């Protein structure tokens, strides 16, 4: 009499690019046929689709199957082949150990693999070892193939954000099987914009917030975030460089979005340990923190949250609005929003005057931009030189010679910048006469730069409990 067996079918495929699960579907059908031939009743299916048996840390359905064996919910397992179940000898030993304890059976579509007897288990171990060996050899072949592609500068995998994959056609009209990434007109400009804004000191958070407000779709998800943007800006691919396993091997066949100097500046900026991930530039979040001066002791004014005040008459608790307080004498305090509003209106009014357009006409903006770009490129090279010395890729003598040479070049670029620097920030504010709109579009660190360039703010002392008096905010315009 045939023993009643409750069988589970395990199916797995490493990659399913189309996501249609056709491969595991075929495995299930073949396994069902084997179960019918053996008279086993299929009571459960365990399917790990698009999951590797070597790279993946977890195989949820595989783990569920082991649990069901331990709970005696199934008496047998049908698989397509031993390498569908596992490519690791250690995992196979777990299966054999479970068979010892729970006396369950295993069958394969290809036949010949069982674990009921010691001879069966020895054969299973041999097949498992062969599967592991073949996996190792396949991995070596693939790694060598990927390295060769990288050395030739060819792309691999999916096109990165900012690019689209094309198949070049030669002069004879034959389409190449090797693709090439060219710039996606819309997405490429988004990456360039983010790079420009980052190098000007704008925070990644501010940029992604703007992208999301403008409903610019992210690389995968709808919304952008700072982590994704940082990863995109650090890609050597953007500068036409081919990277393999974290190392740049040389030029890529990919069309560059910008030059290598721009990429080096971005890497130096974004990997600077002193850079805060959620804010760039000034450490202040408010317009006049550290800029406004106390009219009593000349100390710096800092923004503080409002204090809680208890009414002597009713006992009610009321929180005062945020204020600028003197950080030295603590005797001068003024309503923060009222002071900010006053200063902003003064700046907008001044920059809206006809002569404001001449503020930025001193100096040579082209030379200044070139000098600034040179300084940032030199700084990036200094950082990379330090990394090379730390990683023992250059000698102490080479490091010393390189840093001295770069510092001399930096000093020369600084002299050029001092003589050619235009008031580019003020130029952007007066552009098109839309001063108020341009001001609102600036990040807080840029707004603080405008305040520093244009005026000095002194907050004079006032009597306790008095209403805000604009006359007690002293403004001195700079030449």
The span between the termini is 106 Å
What is the CATH first-level class name of the largest domain?
Alpha Beta
Oligomer: single chain
Q: Numbering strands along the chain, what is their spatial order in the largest sheet?
A: 2-1-3-4
Helices, by number, come to: 15
Q: Which regions have little confidence, pLDDT < 50, spanning 5+ residues?
A: 276-282
CATH superfamily of the largest domain: Resolvase, N-terminal catalytic domain
The total of beta strands comes to 16
CA-atom Rg in angstroms = 34 Å
The 3D shape can be described as elongated
Task: Tell me what portion of residues adopts beta-strand conformation.
Answer: 5-15%
Q: How many individual domains?
A: 4
Q: Provide the CATH architecture of the largest domain.
A: 3-Layer(aba) Sandwich
Structural category is alpha/beta
| Average pLDDT over all residues | 78
CATH T-level topology of the largest domain: Rossmann fold
Helix content: 40-55%
Can you characterise this structure?
It contains 15 helices and 16 strands. The strands form 6 sheets. Strands 2-1-3-4 form a 4-stranded parallel β-sheet, with helices on both faces. The chain has a 3-stranded mixed β-sheet with strand order 9-15-16. A 3-stranded antiparallel β-sheet has the order 10-13-14. The chain has 4 domains: 6-146, 3-Layer(aba) Sandwich (Rossmann fold); 180-270, Putative Large Serine Recombinase, Chain B, Domain 2 (Hect, E3 ligase catalytic domain fold, Alpha-Beta Complex); 282-362 and 423-479, no CATH class; 366-412. It is α/β, with parallel strands linked by helices. It has helices at residues 22-38, 60-70, 82-85, 89-102, 118-151, 185-199, 204-213, 226-233, 260-270, 336-351, 365-390, 396-420, 424-430, 435-441, 444-454; strands at residues 6-13, 41-49, 76-79, 105-108, 163-166, 180-183, 241-244, 247-251, 293-294, 301-304, 308-310, 317-319, 323-326, 333-335, 455-459, 473-477. Residues 6-153 form the Resolvase/invertase-type recombinase catalytic domain. Residues 160-276 form the Recombinase domain. This is Recombinase family protein. Pfam families: Recombinase (PF07508), Resolvase (PF00239).
């Amino acid at each position: 009499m045939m023993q009643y067996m409750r069988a589970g079918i395990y199916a797995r495929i490493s990659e399913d690019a189309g996501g249609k699960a056709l491969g595991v579907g075929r495995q299930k059908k073949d396994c069902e046929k084997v179960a019918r031939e053996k008279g086993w009743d299929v009571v459960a299916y365990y399917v790990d689709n698009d999951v590797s048996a070597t790279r993946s840390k977890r195989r949820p359905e595989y783990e569920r199957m082991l649990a069901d064996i331990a709970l005696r919910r199934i008496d047998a397992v049908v698989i397509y082949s031993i390498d569908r179940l596992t490519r690791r000898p250690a995992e196979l030993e777990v299966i054999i150990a479970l068979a010892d304890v729970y006396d369950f059976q295993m069958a394969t579509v290809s036949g010949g693999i069982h674990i009921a007897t010691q001879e069966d288990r020895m054969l299973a171990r041999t097949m498992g070892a062969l599967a592991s060996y073949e996996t190792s050899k396949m991995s070596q072949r693939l790694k060598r193939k990927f390295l060769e592609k990288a050395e030739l500068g060819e792309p691999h995998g999916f096109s990165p954000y900012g690019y689209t994959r094309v198949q070049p056609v030669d002069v004879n009209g034959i389409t190449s099987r090797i693709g090439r990434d060219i710039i996606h007109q819309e997405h490429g400009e988004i990456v360039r914009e983010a790079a420009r804004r980052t190098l000007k000191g704008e925070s990644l958070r501010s940029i992604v917030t703007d992208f999301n407000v403008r409903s610019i779709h992210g690389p995968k998800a709808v919304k952008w975030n700072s982590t994704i943007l940082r990863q995109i800006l650090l890609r050597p691919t953007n500068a036409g460089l081919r990277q393999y396993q974290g190392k740049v091997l040389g030029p890529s066949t990919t069309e560059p979005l910008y030059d290598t100097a721009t990429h080096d500046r971005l890497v130096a900026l974004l990997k600077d340990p002193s850079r805060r991930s959620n804010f760039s530039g000034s450490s202040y979040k408010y317009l006049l923190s550290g800029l406004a001066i106390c009219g009593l002791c000349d100390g710096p004014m800092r923004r503080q949250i409002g204090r809680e005040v208890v009414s002597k008459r009713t006992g009610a608790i009321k929180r005062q609005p945020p204020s600028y307080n003197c950080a030295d004498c603590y005797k001068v305090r003024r309503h923060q929003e009222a002071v900010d509003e006053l200063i902003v209106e003064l700046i907008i009014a001044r920059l809206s005057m006809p002569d404001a357009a001449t503020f930025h006409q001193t100096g040579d903006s082209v030379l200044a931009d070139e000098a600034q770009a040179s300084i940032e490129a030199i700084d990036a090279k200094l950082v990379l030189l330090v990394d090379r010395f730390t990683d023992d890729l250059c000698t102490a003598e080479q490091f010393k010679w390189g840093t001295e040479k770069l510092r001399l070049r930096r000093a020369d670029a600084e002299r050029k910048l001092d003589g050619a620097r235009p008031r580019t920030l003020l130029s952007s504010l007066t552009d098109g006469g839309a001063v108020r709109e341009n001001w609102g579009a600036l990040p807080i660190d840029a707004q603080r730069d405008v305040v520093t360039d244009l005026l000095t703010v002194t907050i004079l002392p006032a009597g306790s409990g008095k209403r805000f008096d604009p006359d007690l905010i002293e403004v001195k315009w700079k030449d």
